[in-house]
């Protein structure tokens, strides 16, 4: 099947590469000429595990190509995906200018040679399918004044459920595929497009084997509006779970409980489950925050105030203050202190810095007069390019990060951080304060290594008990300098 994907960001490029891998011929289109030239040269413009390998494979076999010209591939394709950015506006609404541009370009290019499905892959507000339909028909009316209806098409919603850092796995081995359309032929064509994924009939790539027991992927075939709402509801629920875990963590700190044990206990309930209950300094990235704001905005437009969603957003915003509060508890005045941030990306296995907690923390620390250092295994080059105004000293290793530093803050839970030699890090620091914003390290191990440690949701009584068990010598080694 011939497919065009408009937009080569995380969603567009991953979608295009995966559809090409399972047997379709895909053209990825973007107005950014430099990005397209980079892709033609064989270089993926952002970090995503296995994406470079996948793009190499489909480029070599000729099943994907890249272009800045949308007209020809749109006219030749049976399915056209819109995968452009929909960034948030100041009032929380989604900025749909790129979606509107894409819709008009589709209407300007389609001919009468075949029936097509235009599928919204971008996360768009409920009702955007109707907007795309209207814009395309307006473009067609300008071109085919006599008979615009001769161009046959239908609009569908095909939301993505990709986790950055796991995007290839989530595309090739998804939990479900959702197709929303108010046209039965459109739904049938989309089902045919996804048949290799639904039936798992493709040969799994050597670098990413098929999960054991996966033989078929559920297809949810529904209305256009339902599909748009499914995407927002899913992200809102996941964001709320994380904020719930953080709310519980804040209570745990005050009553002497330990949040990791608490969420383990509730996660064993089959009605609850354990995923997305990790307490920390909150979620970031381009999805949860933007989608939650957009859903809240949509609800308010319809005369309903979603107080639970507003609370989830507020808890997440407030959680970033936790780091500063703990640093002030340990160091009192932060002016002139040197603080090392362990991690910059909003989550591991990506270089994405959109709405990253690290940036808020760094800005606040700099404003308070602190010296800020950072180490991230992937995201430092992008941070330097995108935020040159941030006076951060970038370090080539964790050892350089902590040299004569006053505190170390874990911001991103990269797997490699778990294997760090804590005693070596503590010995290099002026004040061995460790603020573990992701609960990466075992508290007792960190204190034994010489750190004055605090983690999210570690109750005060729990910390006192650990200090007592270590004894006076252990507490002195843990970096108390009051």
Which structural class matches the secondary elements? alpha/beta
Shape: elongated
Give the name of the CATH architecture of the largest domain: 3-Layer(aba) Sandwich
**What kind of assembly state do the chains in view correspond to?**
single chain
Provide an overview of this structure.
There is one protein chain. This protein is an alpha/beta fold. The chain folds into three domains: 2-222, NAD(P)-binding Rossmann-like Domain (Rossmann fold, 3-Layer(aba) Sandwich), CATH 3.40.50; 231-313, Orthogonal Bundle (N-(1-d-carboxylethyl)-l-norvaline Dehydrogenase, domain 2); 320-477, 3-Layer(aba) Sandwich (Rossmann fold), CATH 3.40.50.720. The protein has helices spanning 10-21, 33-40, 51-60, 71-76, 97-109, 128-143, 167-172, 184-193, 195-198, 224-255, 259-267, 288-301, 307-319, 321-331, 357-367, 380-386, 398-402, 422-428, 443-448, 460-477; strands at 2-6, 25-29, 64-67, 79-82, 116-120, 153-157, 177-181, 219-222, 338-342, 371-375, 392-394, 407-410, 433-436, 452-455. The strands form two sheets. The chain has an eight-stranded mixed β-sheet with strand order 3-2-1-4-5-6-7-8, with helices on both faces. Strands 11-10-9-12-13-14 form a six-stranded parallel β-sheet. Strand 4, helix 5 and strand 5 (116-120) form a beta-alpha-beta unit. 47% of the residues are buried. Mean pLDDT is 93; it is low at 472-482.
State the gist of this model:
With 482 residues, the chain is of the alpha/beta class. Helices cover 45% and strands 13% of the residues. The strands form two sheets. The chain has an eight-stranded mixed β-sheet, sandwiched between helices. A six-stranded parallel β-sheet has the order 11-10-9-12-13-14.
